[in-house]
TrEMBL record:
UniProt keyword annotations, A-Z: Cell outer membrane, Ion transport, Membrane, Receptor, Signal, TonB box, Transmembrane, Transmembrane beta strand, Transport
Biological process, per Gene Ontology: cobalamin transport; monoatomic ion transport
Membrane topology: Multi-pass membrane protein
Top-level taxonomic group: Bacteria
Lineage: Bacteria, Pseudomonadati, Pseudomonadota, Gammaproteobacteria, Chromatiales
Originating species: Nitrosococcus watsoni (strain C-113)
Keyword presence, Zinc: no
Protein localization: Cell outer membrane
Record field: compositional bias (Basic and acidic residues): 209-221
Residue span, TonB-dependent receptor plug domain: 44-152
GO cellular-component term (any): cell outer membrane
Descriptive protein name: TonB-dependent receptor plug
Residue spans crossing the bilayer: none
């Protein structure tokens, strides 16, 4: 897999190490640099943390629209969607809960403070104008504070380079889907700019499975604007601004209880969800004393606005509408002291304020907020260009529950002559209770499924959820780095998980009661038998257990696998094949979900340097399956379009 050797300033706000985008480390000769695991550009082979990297080239080859579709098939990554385009989409890293993953977009914390669980909904996040995505597994609270108890997903948008260039892309296909994208980018030593706009419309499928008598389609309309602007007045000083706006209108379905006492989604023709998201960041970058001292000072702003409108109808005579607003302001100041090539000390300070307000039946929550101060220190050492060590510690001071200390250490041992690399890491993390969990006396919580309401109660005395994790892995390259194989074992322990406990016949209280254990193996293999052909495969076997019930964690398969084959033909054509297998798992209430295999294909051809034709087919085998009990998934579908650039 090709990985860019430089990231630009945007990459300095968060990314990481062991490279395997479904796959693994790029050839050493490319000297790939990653940032998430250490917050500094570091050669991938020198880092002991476990991370996947998806490049802009990968995105172009696969032609996937939402980011969630790109994440499918990666080792240790589970994607769960409640229906088609625009429907609730959750991502689980190595079995941790979806709200245990911190999502960064150009360094902005994208998790929704108004979401009852504090998670990020991937439903409306499109791949347009994205340069790379890095997925860092394991607790990362040492560098990123709360919400990173299970890992970090960092998304970096494209930085303008070279002469001004305009691009336009139009595509359409199944489910009356239409998408138009336009952008302009460019840059020189003084200024750089990149701006992209996208409009996506689709009639969609029924969110409630049509095979269960739900014929009404649930459409989606998505408007996304992304921008990145930079100024470099001197070689040692630069300013950058990034923004991302998303406006979405989605038809959603309701739910009922069947004769077996299970929540089952059903058509609701009047229920819609309007959402807006805004992510802004401005930062300055300064180096002093011949790059010995590097400083990055940034300010970020996150805004989420969700409104569910629903008129009564025969299927749903008692609708449950509501509006929710969440915001987060963050100031962070990072320092990197490079004493030598072998020694880098990183330390910094971060302050953030998260706030929310909500209005729904039985819940009118005025604006509530909490603030957190974080102080972190990390040391990176290398010996003989073979042994690379990283250790860090962090103190967070939360305005409600007080102080919490977390730590992380990693090691990588590289034997260049043998093509062998050994890696290992150990870390702790914490997840602060959400604003809803702390303040909302009664709230409509749906965790990873916004369509199954429950009436439950808050607890202002909650403690943070905690995690402890370690992993160890080995990688072996062969055929002059044209092939590689590796295996990683991981062990996660989650404690003080927040769950509801019945304290009276009609009273449920949130308390720190649950715990979970997760352990498993991740295996990958990369092979380039021909210059034009690349093969990548991975397999994950994972055992999860809820310590309270003794049952497996819901929606996490014990086995899953991914395979990608990419073939360049006639110098200007590209063919990509993807196979994703997801094994048996169970949903809420112990409902079994059968295994499934999905096959996708994409083809493109550059007619000229300025004109390209492309097409893709999803679910080629027309597999019928469910990721969430009662919710539908798209059958076989096709899309195609054209792209211009000048």
């Amino acid at each position: 897999m090709k990985i860019f050797s430089t990231l630009g300033l945007g990459g300095l706000i968060g990314l990481g190490s062991v490279v395997y985008a479904g796959e693994q480390q790029a050839p050493k000769t490319l000297a790939p640099m990653v940032v998430t695991a250490t917050r500094t550009p570091t050669p991938a082979q020198d880092v002991g943390s476990d991370i996947s990297v998806i490049t802009a080239e990968d995105l172009a080859q696969r032609q996937r629209m939402p980011v969630s579709e790109v994440l499918r098939g990666l080792p240790g990554v589970d994607v769960v969607q409640s229906g088609g385009l625009g429907q609730q989409t959750s991502v689980f890293l190595r079995g941790a809960n979806a709200n245990h993953t911190l999502v960064l977009i150009d360094g902005v914390e994208a998790n929704d403070p108004s979401n009852p669980s504090g998670s990020f909904d991937f439903a409306n996040l499109l791949t347009d104008n994205i340069e790379r995505i890095e997925i860092l597994r394991g607790p990362q609270s040492t560098l990123y504070g709360s919400d990173a108890i299970g890992g970090v997903i960092n998304i970096i948008t494209k930085k303008g380079r070279g002469k001004p260039r305009v691009t336009a892309r139009v595509e359409g296909g199944s489910f009356s889907t239409f998408k138009a994208t336009g952008g302009v980018h460019g840059g020189n030593d003084l200024v750089n700019y990149s701006l992209t706009g996208t409009r996506l419309e689709s009639a969609g499928i029924s969110a409630a499975d049509s095979r269960r008598g739900n014929p009404e389609k649930d459409g989606d309309r998505n408007t996304t604007l992304t921008g990145r602007f930079g100024l470099t007045p001197t070689p040692n000083f630069s300013l950058d601004t990034t923004l991302r706006y998303n406006g979405n209108h989605t038809d959603i379905d309701g739910s009922t209880v069947d004769n077996r006492g299970r929540f089952v989604p059903i058509d609701d023709p009047n229920s819609t969800l309007d959402s807006q998201q805004l992510f802004l960041r401005g930062q300055g970058h300064l180096t002093l004393f011949d790059n010995l001292w590097e400083q990055i000072l940034g300010v970020s702003f996150t805004h989420h606005d969700r409104e569910n409108q629903n008129r009564p109808d025969p299927q749903n005579p008692f609708p449950f509408p509501g509006s929710f607003k969440g915001e987060k302001i963050k100031v962070d100041w990072q320092h990197n002291l490079r004493f030598s090539k072998e020694h880098t000390l990183t330390f910094g300070f971060a302050w953030e304020e998260a706030s929310m307000e909500a209005q729904s039946p039985g819940s009118n929550l005025p604006r509530k907020s909490v603030d957190t101060k974080g102080y972190y220190l990390q040391d990176q050492l290398s010996f003989w260009d073979k042994l690379f060590l990283t250790g860090g510690i962090r103190l967070d001071d939360h305005s409600i529950f007080g102080s919490k200390i977390t730590g992380r250490t990693t090691a990588a041992l590289v034997f260049d002559g043998l093509g062998l690399t050994l890696r290992g890491s150990y870390g702790t993390g914490f997840k602060a209770p959400t604003l809803t969990q702390l303040f909302d006396e009664r709230f409509n919580t749906t965790q990873d499924d916004r369509n199954t309401p429950q009436l439950e109660y808050n607890n202002p005395d909650l403690s943070p959820e905690m995690s402890r994790s370690w992993d160890i892995g080995v990688e072996q390259s062969f055929w002059n780095d044209e092939g590689a194989v590796g295996v990683t074992y991981f062990d996660n322990e989650l404690t003080d998980l927040i769950q509801f406990s019945q304290v009276a016949a009609d009273n449920f209280q949130l308390i720190n009661i649950d715990a979970a254990k997760i352990r498993g193996w991740e295996i990958f293999m990369n092979l380039t038998p021909l210059e034009e052909l690349t093969l990548r495969g991975n397999y994950t076997q994972m055992h999860t257990q809820d310590e309270k019930t003794g049952q497996p964690l819901v929606r996490r398969p014990e086995r899953k696998a991914g395979f990608n084959a990419n073939y360049r033909f006639l110098s200007k054509g590209n063919l990509h094949l993807q196979v994703v297998y997801v094994g048996h798992r169970q949903d809420v209430g112990g409902i079994p979900l059968p295994s499934y295999t999905v096959v996708n294909a994409a083809i493109s051809y550059e007619v000229t340097n300025y004109f390209q034709l492309f097409a893709r087919a999803n679910n080629l085998l027309d597999k019928q399956y469910q990721e969430v009990f009662g919710f539908g998934t798209p059958g076989i579908s096709g899309f195609g379009g054209i792209e211009f650039s000048f």
